[in-house]
Amino acid sequence: MSDDNKEKSEEPTGKRLSDEAGKGNVPVSREVYSCFALLGSLVVILYVAPFLLHNFIKINRTFIERAHELPVDGDKFADLIMAVLKATALAVAPIVIIFVLLGFLSSYMQNGLIWAPAALGRGGIAKLNPFTGFQRLFGLTNLLEIVKGLFKTNIFTAISLLLILPMVNEIEIYPLLPWSTQMERMGVVILKIIMAALLVMIPIALADWFYQKWNHHRNLRMTRQEVKDEIKQQEGDPDIKAKIRSIRLSKMRGMMSQVMKDSTVVVTNPNHYAVALDYKEGYGAPICTAKGVDEVALFMKELAKRFDIPIYENPPLARALYATIEVGKEVPVTYWEAVAEVIRFVYKLKGKN
Fold it and tell me: Sign of the C-alpha dihedral, residues 212, 214, 215, 220?
């Protein structure tokens, strides 16, 4: 095999991309997931946190304000614990639903809906190989993720400091404020940090997504031989197709030889179209006995010479007859005059009136 075939210089085909997607091998950006996680946090703080805080206070108020009334015997205490767990689950459920939906949406926006059950068991025992794990750990992709992680950590730390440092003096008086006020002010600070982080993460996520897509295509590049093999699998071996075509052409030639024997004339283009007509006096309009294009048209001309059938070259008429008349059918009335001229030409050659 030549070096050109060995080098993966060809872009991945649609089939290659589709096959890899079926295995779960698709371009995925972790930064896009991070953006959606920040967006989820924003939604939770703005819309869910007040409801969650209200339920949290309601649950704990029972234990703090009426602690002396709480049952301590087995059944009633178990019922109380179950009620607390149920209330907690209902309070936390919206947060879980929001993050699950955003996780699904972030995946859908990157690659659409993909069903890849093979990805669940991908790797198998190979994942336990320490050498393979070492390669993954110190590979280019992992090193790039480490660099991105350090960069994001520094950015978020800087953003947090810029937003918190001006509030250092206020933080000293927080213990003197009501608990609800403390939570409200801390919520505002966290909200500002998340919004600033989101503004920074969006361009990072976009850049990372385009990089992941480019890198995915680069990793799936194919050699010329792989492309040829895939074409053979999809369309069949060219040699076999050529043999089948040759057999069909041979059968068609045999049948055409039989039907063209008694034809009166062959109208040609001269090389690309051919229509054989049979005319018998007293039997109405001429009938099409055969027609063909390209190789078939050339073969019809060979048969015409073999059977001493006159050949009449008229490109417009040949194309028109080929397009409008079916084998075994009479010539349409539209072309009677033009075909009559052809018949006169034949009769003149044969010395008939």
Answer: positive
